Amino acid sequence: MSHAAATLMRAARPMVVAGTLGLLLLVLAALSAVPAIVSLVLGDTGLEWRLFGVAALELLLGTLLVRLPRPDDIQWNEALAVTGLAFLLAAGAMVWPLMGNEIGALDAWFEAVSGVTTTGLTTLRDMAERPAGFLFLRAWMQWYGGLGIAVLTVALIMRHHASGRRLLETTGESLTHASARDHARRVLLVYLGLTGLAVFGVWMSGLAPFQALLHGLAAVATGGFAASDRNIAPLPPVSVAVLSAICLAAAVSLPLYAQLWRKGPRALLGEPDVRALIASAVVTAALLALIGVTLDGVAWPRALADGLVQSISAQTDTGFSTVDIAALPAASQLVLIVSMTIGGCTGSTAGGIKLIRLLILIRLVQLALRRTAVSERAVLGANVGTARIEPDAVAAALQLLGLWALVLILSWFVFLLHGVAPLASLFEVASATANAGLSAGLTGPDLAPLLKVVLSVDMLLGRVEILALLVLLYYPTWFGRRRAS
């Protein structure tokens, strides 16, 4: 690092980070109280008092921390640190309540991380025998993790415009002229509306109300937790179709839905990444069906139906499954790995690297090819839809792709050192990092403890797009010259 760059850097202010975290803890306290009340109503006494205890502790800490100074504007490294710490705190807070269901500490941590990151991988079995309050807690973690704690905080209790804007930007939200709070509230209303439609739609498809609630919450969050060890395979075909439609809708940028009343369908279909989402799901479904017919001898109607469900699940990074992924041909697993990695739209609940970044890279390749056929002095630009690709967007896309590749390779290497089959281990690592939740059969009670830790780290890195957690470990984030608070 050059001396000039070092003189411009400013370390994060711990009191500012802690004060902002206090606001998030107040929201987490309210979120923790909801499954506590549900458990109380359902009579799950082994869980309710633990959840009430966690909610009380979060409320106490949040009340103390919000008294610390919080300026109207916070630095980028402070916002990233808050985002990273928020997910660590949200997952850590649920470990003790989950352990009340006779689950070990590591498995409880894995389940909590999978929940708040909306991944859906689980090391647990015998879901049909678990208490109703426990199943609701898993679905609830995914629901608020899907929207994001920062968005909820800005929408409900945060008042500082600049600070809220900075927090939302760390989650991938694209703000235009609206204030951060107005934007967050619109996103929250859209999310609540989609949640209501999801639960109602699944209920109308034939599921019991509580089952509809569990699966509806997981679907709108593109989470993938189900109430059966066979995931959604036991559900009626109509329910599976409704859940797939919900997942696809949730993988679209949520702010776009607020424009439907003014622009109509073109508010969605006019966006290049929405069109790319639909095209990717269709292409993936066709490939899976073709592989199923040619290699497994599956009839075309069944191959197309299963292919469509799995393609939507992978493309939206939901994790719902009607088939045994481990039994699929290697070609099908490779197709799913690519689909999970690409993911859905920015500003949605889907994971992955996001389609817009793939579109940017495709446009850059097209631009490079065009340059070979024009004058060296010609000035060419590249657009995605009507938006011009700016250098910052290119740098951000390349940065994320590089970090993604590094995380995948390192995590995969650890699995290979444990003697795990190469394709299955790559599938599991890609699923965790993309917050997809599909499993090739490796994630379970017998998975080595170190590998459970690796996958839980991958899930967190994928949810915060890696940089937020790296900032927490970056020495200059905490040590150096600071601005006055």
TrEMBL record:
Keyword Membrane: yes
Cellular location(s): Cell membrane
Keyword Transmembrane attributed: yes
Gene Ontology biological process terms from the UniProt entry: metal ion transport
GO CC field: plasma membrane
Keywords: Cell membrane, Ion transport, Membrane, Transmembrane, Transmembrane helix, Transport
UniProt xrefs under Pfam families: TrkH (PF02386)
InterPro entries tied to this protein: Cat_transpt (IPR003445)
Membrane topology qualifier: Multi-pass membrane protein
Transmembrane segments: 49-68, 80-99, 140-158, 187-204, 240-258, 278-300, 393-417, 453-475
Top-level taxon of origin: Bacteria
Entry's Gene Ontology molecular function annotations: monoatomic cation transmembrane transporter activity
Family: Belongs to the TrkH potassium transport family.
Full protein name: Trk-type K+ transport system, membrane component
